[in-house]
Specification:
The protein has 14 helices and 19 strands. Strand 1 (5-10), helix 1 (16-28) and strand 2 form a beta-alpha-beta unit. The chain has helices at 16-28, 41-44, 47-54, 70-77, 88-95, 102-109, 122-126, 128-139, 165-178, 214-225, 253-263, 308-314, 333-344, 384-399; strands at 5-10, 32-37, 80-86, 114-118, 143-144, 148-151, 157-161, 189-195, 199-200, 206-207, 229-235, 245-250, 269-272, 279-281, 302-304, 322-329, 348-353, 364-371, 376-383. It is an alpha/beta fold. The model has no long low-confidence stretch (mean pLDDT 93). The strands form five sheets. The protein has an eight-stranded mixed sheet with strand order 12-11-8-13-16-17-18-19, sandwiched between helices. Strands 2-1-3-4-5 form a five-stranded parallel sheet, sandwiched between helices. It is elongated, with a radius of gyration of 24 Å. It has two domains: 5-178, Rossmann fold; 189-399, Rossmann fold (3-Layer(aba) Sandwich), CATH 3.40.50. 34% of the residues lie in helices and 25% in strands. Bound molecules: cytidine-5'-monophosphate (C5P). Cytidine-5'-monophosphate is lined by residues 193, 253, 272, 274, 276, 278, 305, 307-309, 325-327.
Length: 400
């Protein structure tokens, strides 16, 4: 079988050096990659590097090898175009359909999925011109992943860093696997909660649970690869931020509720994959609780936490918003799942059976997705990503 053909566009930002790692990951995983840098990208990383790493000649202009009509052919033949880093200037030229170098020509002739991984200073990213260009590209079906927050060139920090190349690679892999030029969640905003809450007893102890956050992260990654703007509300996860996703970190159920309520007014869909503690300690000891000689410990008194899923299902922040819950059950899985779906009032409930064999933290999952419309979608044992894709299929069909 022919290797999938990927065009790696590189525009002129300092993060161009990180695209070398993305290129390596793509070639090592069996992709045939043509690198198309802009002229200014070559100020940061030279043509020799791109050529050696990709095994192909590298050009920036339409004027070399004109007999091969590269300005049309490279785009036409591509299975995926990824631009990393995408500068404010490149996004502007792409949004306006300019074709003044080989990369912008390629973007106009490509009929495959296109991924932009922007990187620039926060001010440039937040400028209304860039916001409008990004919105235009997304509306046309491109996947524009959100920049990461962190250290920028020089001493300043903020939003605008190129996401980790390993994460951009994951996005590319997923977009390629779907193989459709128009991502079905493009222009949608989705909110996903992940991980498990921790309810503090004192400054060093908490009541927690074993949720790793992997299922929620798989949901966030797959939604981003399907074109959605994603807000990931992460409770105590030790996982790397998925590329192109806005991550809000929380600790307790009450903080999770605040973050969810803040995000839902703009959301087309909300997926509550987090394991939220049903109870929290009634009291928080400001100092560490000490053992006292000859005395039994004080019992821990618990109070109920708010049920966030039930609350956002009952009070929809937007008309047509799709709300999805998760339920882990140990027995009578389907009957309990149906009852829970009714009680929570959500549109879809992903029910899994938990037990000794099926532990939290694993890479795989198996579930049945119950719909408020009576539907039942079984998802066989497989990667958490596969379950995530099924959830988004069901969400997308309800949004449409
Ligand atoms: O009732 P149970 O905890 O089994 O429900 C699980 C579902 O409800 C999950 O989607 C979880 O995120 C959500 N939940 C919630 N608020 C709580 C408890 C659970 O939103 N306090």
């Amino acid at each position: 079988m022919d290797k999938p053909k990927v065009v790696l566009g590189v525009s002129g930002g300092i993060a161009a050096y990180k695209a070398c790692e993305l290129l390596r990951r793509l070639t090592e995983s069996g992709h045939d990659v043509r690198v198309v840098p802009t002229g200014s990208a070559l100020h940061f990383v030279g043509a020799a590097t791109w050529s050696a790493l990709s095994g192909h000649p590298v050009r920036t202009e339409v004027w070399s090898d004109v007999h091969e009509v590269p300005h049309v052919r490279i785009g036409q033949e591509a299975d995926l175009v990824v631009v990393a880093p995408a500068t404010a200037d490149l996004l502007a030229r792409a949004a306006h359909g300019l074709a003044d170098d080989l990369l912008t020509n390629t973007l106009l002739t490509a009929r495959c999925p296109v991924v932009f991984a922007p990187a620039m200073h926060t001010e440039m990213w937040e400028h209304p011109a860039t916001r409008e260009n990004v919105a235009t590209l997304r509306r046309r079906g491109a996947v524009v992943i959100e920049p990461a927050v962190g250290r920028l060139t020089g001493v300043d920090t903020g939003k605008g860093r190129l996401p980790d190349p390993a994460e951009i690679f994951e996005t590319c892999r997923r977009v390629l696997a779907r193989g459709v030029a128009a991502p079905d969640l493009a222009g949608r905003h989705v909110v996903v909660s992940a991980g498990g809450t921790r309810e503090p007893l004192d400054p060093v102890r908490f009541l927690g649970n074993r949720s790793s956050g992997k299922q929620g992260y798989a949901l966030a990654r797959t939604a981003a690869a399907r074109g959605a703007r994603v807000t990931l509300i992460a409770a105590n996860t030790g996982l790397p931020d998925p590329a192109g996703v806005d991550v809000v970190r929380v600790g307790t159920a009450v903080q999770l509720r605040e973050a969810v309520l803040k995000a839902v007014p703009e959301a087309d869909a909300v997926v509550m994959a987090a394991a939220v503690a049903d109870f929290r300690p009634a009291a928080y000891a400001a100092g560490k609780i000490k053992k006292k000689d000859g005395q039994e410990p004080e019992p821990i008194v618990l109070v109920r936490n708010p049920d966030i899923l039930a609350e956002i299902s009952a009070d929809r922040a937007r008309e047509g918003q799709v709300v999805v819950g998760f339920a882990a059950e140990t027995d009578d899985v389907l009957a309990n799942g149906r009852a829970k779906l009714q009680r929570k009032g959500c549109d879809l409930l992903v029910v899994n059976e938990v037990g000794e064999r099926r532990t939290f933290g694993s890479e795989e999952n198996e579930a049945v997705v119950l719909g408020a419309d009576g539907s039942e979608t079984p998802v066989p044992h497989g990667p958490k990503e596969a379950l995530a894709e099924t959830v988004w299929d069901l969400v997308a069909s309800r949004l449409a």
